[in-house]
Specification:
Order of helices and strands: EEHHHEHEEHE
Shape: elongated
Largest sheet: 4 strands, antiparallel
Distance between the termini: 9 Å
Radius of gyration: 20 Å
Structural class: alpha+beta
Oligomer: single chain
Number of strands: 6
Number of helices: 5
Length: about 160
């Protein structure tokens, strides 16, 4: 591990980066296929994967779904401002926001707003229902500014490995 200021950077070998790159593209790949692809035998490849998991670099493996195929045609980004008159407003908002199935990402942000939410719904009517019946009913919410994605130009869950270590 390498320390840079107050941050700990993980030192990844080129082989580790190849493993991570392949898993990011297809987490269903078998260990044998992965080992062959990166030029290792199966046992050392498996040990490296286990080490990456134990170190927390691989946090989980999931299947990605296509929202449009499932009828989820609206992606909205909502900037949320809290009233801050209530003590623990940030914590309360976080606890509630993560429970909403429509919220696929939630970030505390800097600037004049407090949170950025990525919300996925079927259509504008379902977004309005979510806004009226869930988000705006939270007592600590004072303002919501919504932006709607028109065209998705890029979407990836892959992290840029060339920027690490």
């Amino acid at each position: 591990m390498i320390f840079k200021g107050n941050f700990m950077l993980i030192d990844l070998s080129d082989i580790d980066k190849k493993i991570l790159g392949a898993i990011q593209k297809d987490a269903s790949i078998t260990n044998s296929e992965l080992a062959e692809r990166i030029g290792l035998s199966a046992a050392p490849c498996w040990r490296r994967i286990k080490s990456l998991e134990e170190r927390g670099i691989i946090s989980k493996r999931v299947g990605l779904l296509d929202p449009k195929t499932l009828g989820l045609n609206i992606t909205a980004f909502a900037n949320v401002k809290l009233s801050h008159v209530q003590e623990n407003a940030l914590e309360e908002f976080e606890k509630e926001a993560v429970k909403f199935a429509e919220v696929t990402e939630c970030y505390i942000i800097s600037g004049s707003m407090d949170f950025l939410l990525r919300i996925v719904t079927e259509n504008m009517q379902s977004y309005e229902r979510f806004l009226r019946k869930k988000l705006l009913r939270m007592p600590m919410v004072s303002e919501v500014n919504s932006h709607f994605a028109v065209t998705q130009v890029k979407y990836t869950t892959a992290v840029p490995l060339e920027l690490s270590s």
